Amino acid sequence: MDIIQSVRWTDDGRGVRIIDQRLLPGELVERELRTLGDVRDAIRTLAVRGAPAIGIAGAMGLVAVLSPNEAAGGDVLLADARRVAAEIAATRPTAVNLAWALTRVLRAAESVSGTGAEMLTAMRREATAILNEDRAMCRRIGEHGLSLLHDGARVLTHCNAGALATGGIGTALAPIYLAQERGWTIEVFVDESRPLLQGSRLTAWELQRAGVSVIVLTDGMAASLMREQGIDLCIVGADRIAANGDVANKIGTYSLAIAARYHEVPFYVAAPTSTMDPATATGSEIVIEQRDADEVRRIANVATAPPDICAYNPAFDVTPAALVSAIVTDRGIHRPPYAFGESLGALAGAIGG
Fold first, then answer.
1. Active-site entry in 134, 191, 219, 239
2. CA nearest 255: which of 308, 194, 167, 334?
3. Which residues are paired to 267 by β-bridges?
4. Whether residue 147 has pLDDT greater than 60
5. Both 211 and 287 in a single domain?
6. Cα–Cα distance between 148 and 186 in angstroms, integer?
7. Distance from C-alpha of 163 to C-alpha of 177, rounded to nearest angstrom
8. Mean pLDDT over all residues of the chain?
9. Which residues make Cβ contacts (< 8 Å) with residue 213, sequence separation at least 6?
10. Which helix (H) or strand (E) holds 333?
11. What is the distance between the alpha carbons of residues 233 and 321, in angstroms, rounded to a whole number?
């Protein structure tokens, strides 16, 4: 089973190597991120995307940007780190993992009373830990989510919550990859995920590469598929989960959840604990990124609408907790009613199989 690795250190350990997801499935191209402009551009333009991968790239990118300044004094480097982290964090406000990962790396720097080089060593160690933890986290999500599948299951997913979106084997796709390891036959139906087609371009590409049976459909076909051919379950990722279980994910997720509820198809969300935001009470408080209208008006630089027409283009929507059958995390499966409280420490005891 050939599962892609989307983000890692460069060979010299002073930059971040990513797969440029804007070019898939046509070309498999890797980029190196070494400057603040590199990191911000890669995150903003979706060269790297998916909440966990964004967090990893942001954390590692912070270290990469500061690496040329390792001779600076500790106070100078820490001030630079805080400034650069704030600029990276502002690039994608909806994905909570980005701010979470940057905060972890900054705290590692703040824990060192020493030179800039010593601070950078601590920051690099923390960023590497975030990457390694993400790989292990993906595996645990897969192990918990495997209980929701069976040999011969027909699964519908939206956008991309696989290896390309994480440091490991993905979140929503992790149970599918583990089912593949067991020799189960799983048939995966993938929404195109307009406007940027992360489902057809990315999910279908990585599943096919791994030998999983995959069928692509347009977003508007999902309800008919459920009615005419039957789907056993839907499973998607998340960019932010509010304390009450409301889920922000790629635009179109809400529509899929509504269709699943009407057709009595279980609708599951798979995400790491770091994607949960106990400080955000409900989904109505989540900031939704509004993206360039040309993403709707054009596909692959070909006009699909009049060039000056107004376009509605939120990157995400919020699926109410009432439509979510269960949330699969690295700590287990949580079922309604969702009440994640004010600390993730409380969450650890609340989640069970």
1. 239
2. 194
3. 234
4. yes
5. yes
6. 12
7. 10
8. 93
9. 185, 186, 187, 188
10. strand 332-334
11. 17
Quick one: 190 and 257 in the same domain? yes
Question: CB-side exposure of 257: number of CA atoms within 13 Å?
Answer: 25
DSSP 274: G
Closest CA to 142 of 2, 53, 247, 270: 270
- Say if residue 106 is in the same domain as residue 165: no
- Tell me the three state secondary structure of residue 70: coil
Is 1 part of a structural domain of the chain? no
**Known active-site residue 191:** no
If you ran DSSP here, which 8-state letter would residue 35 be given? S
CA distance 339 to 353: 16
Q: Domain range spanning residue 67?
A: 7-139
Tokens read off for 309: 């027409």
Same domain, 124 and 209: no
Q: Are strands 233-236 and 154-157 parallel, antiparallel or unpaired?
A: parallel
Using 50, 70 and 90 to split pLDDT, how confident is the model at 29?
very high
- Tell me, yes or no, whether 148 and 254 share the same domain: yes
Whether 170 contacts 184, CB under 8 Å: no
CA-based end-to-end distance of the chain:
28
Residue whose tokens read 């780190």: 81
Which of residues 97 and 353 earns the better pLDDT score? 97
Q: pTM for this structure?
A: 0.88
List the helix and strand counts (H, then E) for the chain.
Answer: 12, 16
Asked if residue 275 lies in contact with residue 141, where contact means CB atoms within 8 angstroms, the answer is no
- Helix/strand/coil for 319: strand
